[in-house]
User: What shape does this take?
Amino acid sequence: MGNFVKVATRTEVAEGSGKLVEASGKKIALFNAGGKYYAIGNDCKHRGGPLAEGELDGTHVTCPWHGWEYDITTGKNLDDPAVTVGCFPVKVEGDDILVET
Assistant: This one.
């Protein structure tokens, strides 16, 4: 089991948006969907597009480069669930958002 690392504060990740954060040397896409926070690997499996910059629709993010879609709650690609990006546990303590690495 990894350690939880502070990566952002709640005011830094607006509802319905994502933010690129780094924890333990990993680039992580952190999202706020409906007031809940989710963290997945930032690099799209297609060509490495930045998922943190993708458009969020509910709990689905679309890669801004070529349109691949992922479920931010599981890290699974919507078209092929066998294709996944890392999924990291998130917890909130006060205003701090922490990700387990």
